[in-house]
Design a protein that fits this description.
Helix content of chain C: 25-40%
Number of helices of chain A: 13
Helix content of chain A: over 70%
Mean pLDDT of chain A: 85
Structural class of chain C: alpha/beta
Radius of gyration of chain A: 23 Å
Distance between the termini of chain A: 38 Å
Number of domains of chain A: 1
CATH architecture of chain A: Orthogonal Bundle
Structural class of chain A: mainly alpha
Strand content of chain A: under 5%
Order of helices and strands of chain C: EHEEHEHEHHHEHEHEEHHHEE
Strand order of the largest sheet of chain C: 5-6-7-3-8-9-11-10
Mean pLDDT of chain C: 90
Oligomer: heterotrimer
Chain lengths: ~300, ~325, ~325
């Protein structure tokens, strides 16, 4: 009874909070959130809402190849909302399934980057000294390479050490590792900066005074207070990770054609761009654009809303 | 009587928020005459800085002047455009802020900043402006002004930096200077120097000074008259000696009594219960009534008029000095 | 009775050098700031000892060293006969930690904004594995707030109320001694008196000892039994309150008293003090106050004066006879 009451009031409090208010008052944020939500739902529910399973060779009919959008196929008479690709796969279904992979890789990579970056940033900021010097110099060096290059390097090494028969299976995990490892630097930098500010605040001194261990202070006192900027960067990183995944897949070093992500679909599509089958490229590309842009705009709004100096 | 340099009439500043409209400055009126220092005191959030910012036109959106008038030597300035106000600022109104570092450009030498301000507001050549800049630094007590004019702000100590800010505020010979907590960031010994400097410049130049501070000691030593603000309203206004020794408003009286005085020794301090209400949660009547030991039903329903008292003005139904007088006559 | 705190010849040096690479390129030596030099004092049980001084005087540094937040460079600090830095017996260290607490200047930075008041207040006890049932509620009522406030977050309180919460947290481990670092300088005057009165009440009720650090002479005069005046990291004068305010001996103390604005000083015209506090990295030779001192002689420029006893006062000045 009481728990229900507190949870209700917590929900009401969340709805009444400044963040929720700012959200309701920012049409761009609301529209972006709706788009992101629809796309994520589509990806999650793909096996149930997609007309065909593009990964199931049995459901494919090569005769359906190159069917234009919303036009009956000349041989089979079947109609596809967004047309089909060269192998007769329904573009709409491949997009839904492709987004699953893109989003899975994006979320996992950002998750990995957050774990790494926040841990190293906290350690560097709180401990200082040579720990900080080593962590931040490594971060500086990594920043001098374009992150896509770092990802390709990691991808190349991983490809070299995995046996060929496992490569397709491992590709997704290697992607996550590659993007996550190239992305931790900004989390580490922001967390270190925020930690430097927080650790000099008096509530941290009060905790040190009573003999709390550094680990307890970092986790229980500082971490909750440095999460706001992490949330902002995580959102923007998610968009970047999805784009990075698409780039790698487009370059042919990412998701394999048998399990295509949005990037793979765009790579396949661009081969037919000038031969008239524009839909194979256009629909995946627009989906990627909508996804990345909406997440980015959401991140921008979050940054403004959480930054008290701009309010 | 001569026209006051600054005349604020029934000033209301409002901030619209999602929880309603806040009034950080509510119906405030006061004058400052040439050569006079008006002290403005109050607790944080009482609206003292906001009043100063409204006068110089530096209110941050969404705060804005809702009604009332601000007259600078009789000329209304509350409705001027941003551009016109910017020309007035510096030329006819100088500003001194708490943190000297924020009012100086770290990338320009103090000489560049001074000559730039002088040439923008006065019709002089560069050489004349430079001479004036040196004279201005000299006047605020910076030793070897000619040599130090090419130094950057960070090369000065805290106290010297605040002197540079004062020179900058005064170099275009304004009629009015608004000093917002000018000594709060400084040490006691430097604070005494800066206050002495402000008093001297005010006397010699005949500048009207609005001195915003929370330090009653500074007010007592520097100000001629004092305005006490509480929750956006002017609680009391009068000559500094009368207000401090013989307050009319119970809030002022409580404030004075709760300040530890060397002469009182270690006996228990008098305290005002509670704290100033937040702007969004003001009581219906007099904002001080929930903390006031003299409050009656009337006070809780109606904020009460601002009336003339023997000290000056007080916004209170039952001003202390007049009740005391009535009791004495009865 | 032996003193609760005994500070002897305390030194603290900060390395304020630029990073190694900059130093090498600019060919600069390492730079050191001597924040505290050769400070000795004792605090009697159940008394209030105040350290006053302007910025850079080292008063906050001494406070942090006393509670163990900062290490020292030399000398010794004993609390109940235990030196926190060198003591190896874990039980003794924990006992002293529970015995000494601190109240900070900024009530907005000293409470973790993400914690409930209950957890903030109980932390000193929880950290030592003690029983915290009803502790926060009891302490909140003791400092003049209500038990229901325990489940709120810090942002729901005003500055004065937050400082009361800080005091409640400081009391949680039932300390014998509290170091108060400018406890009221961030508060408005009408709230300051509430907090000062509360601190006086608690001191009587619990037999507390305060080390009171402040730059505000009126507050120090109100609270302290004994006062030490610091200038540029050195104790220049120490005396019981009434003696110090009646007859300040050191020229710096006299200057400080003259310069402080007074509520009854209407239109007071005093010659403001000369100069500013010198750079602590390159302090003046001899007595650090000599460039601003009206009495300075050649001896003052060359020789650092030592603390000497004059009646109830200890003073470090060549010119005091």
């Amino acid at each position: 009874m009481t728990t229900q009451k507190t949870s209700q009031s917590r929900l009401a409090r969340a709805w009444d909070s400044d963040l929720a208010y700012s959200f309701r008052k920012t049409p761009v944020a609301v529209v972006s959130a709706v788009i992101v939500l629809v796309l994520i739902l589509g990806a999650v529910l793909a096996p149930w809402i997609a007309p065909l399973n593009p990964f199931d060779p049995a459901s494919l009919n090569l005769m359906n190849g190159f069917t234009p959008p919303s036009t009956p196929n000349a041989f089979t008479g079947e109609t596809f909302v967004m047309g089909t690709d060269d192998q007769g796969r329904d573009v709409f279904s491949t997009i839904l399934f492709g987004m699953r992979i893109s989003l899975f890789v994006g979320f996992s990579a950002v998750f990995l980057a957050i774990i790494l970056g926040v841990t190293l940033g906290l350690l560097a900021g709180y401990l200082g000294g040579w720990v900080e010097t080593i962590i931040m110099r490594v971060a500086d060096i990594q920043l001098t390479f374009p992150s896509i290059m770092v990802a390709m390097l990691i991808f190349g090494i991983a490809k070299g050490v995995t046996p060929p028969e496992y490569r397709d299976q491992m590709a997704i995990w290697v992607l996550i590792l590659a993007i996550g490892l190239s992305d931790w630097v900004q989390f580490a930098r922001v967390v270190r900066g925020a930690t430097l500010v927080e650790k000099n605040k008096e509530y941290v001194q009060a905790a040190r005074l009573i003999g709390r261990s550094p680990v307890a202070i970092m986790l229980r006192h500082i971490l909750p207070n440095v999460l706001n900027p992490v949330l902002v960067i995580a959102t923007i990183s998610l968009a970047l990770a999805i784009i990075a995944e698409a780039t790698l897949s487009f370059l042919g070093v990412g998701a394999p054609p048998t399990k295509p992500s949005l990037g793979t679909l765009i790579r396949i599509g661009q081969e037919y761009m000038f031969s008239g089958e524009w839909w194979i490229l256009l629909f995946p590309a627009v989906t990627l654009l909508a996804l990345a842009l909406s997440i980015n705009l959401l991140g921008d709004w979050l940054r403004d809303a959480l930054n008290p100096r701009l309010r | 009587m001569e026209t006051p340099i600054l005349s604020v009439r029934n000033l209301v500043v409002e901030i619209p928020t999602r929880h309603g409209i806040l009034r950080p400055v509510d119906n405030v009126s006061y004058d400052i005459h040439a050569g006079e220092i008006l002290g403005v005191v109050g607790e944080s959030g009482a609206g003292k800085s906001m009043t100063g910012n409204a006068v110089i036109g530096l209110l941050n959106r969404p705060a804005h002047i809702k009604s009332g008038e601000i007259l600078l030597s009789g000329q209304p300035i509350h409705s001027l455009s941003g551009d016109a106000l910017r020309r007035l600022r510096g030329k006819r109104m100088g500003m001194i802020f708490q943190d000297p570092l924020t009012s100086l450009n770290p990338l320009l030498t103090v000489g560049e900043q001074l000559t730039e301000t002088i040439m923008e507001h006065l019709d002089v050549s560069y050489a004349q402006a430079l001479d004036r800049a040196v004279a201005a630094l000299d006047e605020v007590g910076i030793p070897a002004a000619r040599a130090r004019i090419n130094s950057y702000p960070h090369e000065f100590s805290g106290g010297m930096r605040q002197r540079v800010v004062i020179a900058l505020a005064l170099c275009a010979e304004p009629e009015l200077v608004i000093a917002d907590e000018p000594t709060t960031a400084l040490d006691v010994s430097v604070q005494a120097q800066i206050i002495a400097l402000l008093k001297r410049l005010c006397r010699e130049r005949g500048v009207a000074v609005m001195l915003v501070t929370h330090d009653m000691g500074v007010i007592a030593e520097a100000a001629d008259r004092v305005a006490v603000m509480y929750a956006g309203r002017l609680a009391e206004l009068g000559p500094v000696r009368d207000v401090i020794l013989n307050a009319d408003h119970p809030y002022t009286a409580g404030l004075m009594a709760s300040t530890p005085l060397a002469s009182q020794g270690q006996k228990r301090l008098r305290q005002i219960p509670g704290s100033m209400p937040r702007l969004g949660q003001l009581p219906m009547g007099c904002a001080f009534s929930p903390r006031c030991e003299f409050a009656q039903d009337k006070c809780k329903q109606d904020p009460g008029p601002t009336r003339e008292t023997c000290n000056g003005r007080a916004a209170c139904w039952f001003p202390l000095s007049s009740t005391a007088k009535q009791e004495a006559t009865q | 009775m032996n003193p609760i705190v005994k500070v002897e010849n305390l030194d603290r040096v900060f390395d304020v050098s630029k990073p190694w690479l900059n130093r090498v390129i600019e060919r600069q030596p390492k730079q050191f700031l001597k924040a505290v030099s050769d400070v000795s004092f004792e605090i009697e049980r159940n008394s209030v000892y105040a350290l006053v001084g302007e910025s850079g005087s080292g008063k906050s540094t001494i406070g942090k060293i006393v509670v163990g937040l900062l290490g020292k460079s030399g000398g010794s600090v004993e609390i109940n006969g235990v030196d926190l830095e060198t003591e190896t017996d874990r039980a003794k260290v924990d006992a002293v930690r529970a015995d000494i607490q601190m109240i900070f200047q900024d009530p907005f930075a000293s409470l973790n904004p993400r914690w409930r008041v209950r957890d903030i207040i109980a932390e000193p006890v929880a950290a030592l594995g003690g029983n915290t049932d009803g502790l926060a509620e009891r302490l909140l009522e003791q400092v003049g707030l209500s038990a229901a406030d325990a489940s709120k977050y810090p942002h729901e309180f005003s500055g004065g109320q937050r400082q009361r919460i800080c005091i409640a947290r400081a009391l949680a481990s039932e300390p014998k001694m509290i170091v108060c670092d400018e406890p009221t300088s961030a508060l408005d005057v009408s709230v300051q008196s509430q907090v000062l009165n509360l601190m006086s009440d608690l001191r009587e009720e619990f037999g507390l000892t305060y080390l009171f650090i402040s730059h505000d002479l009126t507050v120090v005069h109100h609270m302290a039994d004994k006062i030490g005046v610091l200038y540029l990291g050195r104790l220049v004068e120490e005396a019981p309150r009434d003696v110090l305010f009646a007859s300040p001996k050191h020229p710096y103390t006299q200057m400080l008293f003259d310069a402080a604005p007074r509520m009854d000083g209407f239109g007071r015209e005093v010659e403001p003090p000369k100069g500013e506090i010198p750079d602590a990295i390159n302090p003046p030779s001899g007595c650090a106050f000599h460039p601003r001192c009206p009495l300075a002689t050649d001896l003052c420029k060359q020789k650092q004066p030592q603390m000497r006893k004059h009646g109830d006062t200890r003073v470090a000045c060549h010119m005091v006879e």
